Amino acid sequence: MLDRIIVSWDTASTLGEMSDWSVGQVWGVREQDFFLLDVVRKRFEFHQLRRAVLELHARWDADVTLIEKTALGHALLQDLRRTSPLRPILLPARLDKVARCEAQSARFEEGRVHLPAEAPWLGAYESELLAFPNGRHDDQVDATSYALHYLTDWLRRVRPPTRRSRESMRGVRGRYDAEPATVVGETIASVGEGHRVTIEDGRRVIHVPASTPFPPPDARAEPSGRTTRRPSRRRDRA
User: Fold this and answer.
1) Percent of the chain with pLDDT strictly greater than 90
2) Which range (4-13, 26-35, 172-181) has the least confidence?
3) Dist CA 12 CA 139 (whole Å)
4) What does the buried/exposed string (b/e) look like for 179-190 if buried means 16 or more CB atoms within 10 Å of the residue's CB?
5) Calpha distance 124→113 (Å, rounded)
6) Partners of 152 in the beta sheet?
């Protein structure tokens, strides 16, 4: 089960331009892993591209469709919002193509981007990715960087990193003083009368009265891992 499915579109630069490809990619995310599910790559007329955007979104029941901010992409977004229930998100190009790709390269290096074992579009996708930035085309690379950027940002918003308080990391000392909790298989109530038990730096410390006699050296038991403290007696100076 995927947490979110999106469609990322990289469209031709201008209206009526048929030399560039338009690419639609379907991406899914689960936990911190990204999955490329489907790719549509073709030279479209405007009406064909509009139909392809609607069909790909509906086929995968996508949560959102992203469209690159080009002249054609902006016109497509306006048309879809005016004539269909689809509400795409227009993505402006904040960085150049190489910088956008490098920003997402860590996802690949960490092994968090997963491709299908077999797909009719897989060979062309891998070839373009490996040839970038010296390849003839980069439309699939653009669609990939847009998708990974959006999904990474989405994960950061819905699952922000949690910060532990100092109390949760060091332990709340008052909790142990108030509760007869079990510590190392033994309850605090099981120590001798007049003794006081605290937890300091993860260790159980038993405080005994100053009048408690210590056993002779030969009668002492093996070390138990506990730390025992007794208050020092004040001596009156002569």
Assistant:
1) 40
2) 172-181
3) 9
4) eeeeeeeeebee
5) 17
6) none
pLDDT at 187 over 60: no
> Which residues, at least 6 apart from 32, have a Cβ–Cβ distance to it below 8 Å?
112, 155
DSSP 189: G
What is the per-residue pLDDT for 160?
Answer: 65
| Calpha distance 115→33 (Å, rounded) | 11
pLDDT value, residue 211: 64
* Contact status, residue 1 vs residue 28, Cβ threshold 8 Å: no
Distance CA 24, CA 59 (A): 12
Tokens of 86: 């689809």
Q: How far apart are CA 33 and CA 151, in angstroms?
A: 10
E strands in the chain: 4-10, 22-30, 33-42, 64-68, 89-91, 113-114, 182-183, 186-187, 196-200, 203-207, 227-229
Longest CA pairwise span in the chain (Å): 106
Residue in 48, 96, 68 with CA at minimum distance from that of residue 7: 68
Cβ count near 127 (within 10 Å): 13
| Contact call for residues 11 and 72 (beta carbons, < 8 A) | yes
Tokens of 1: 């089960």
CB 19 within 8 A of CB 36: no
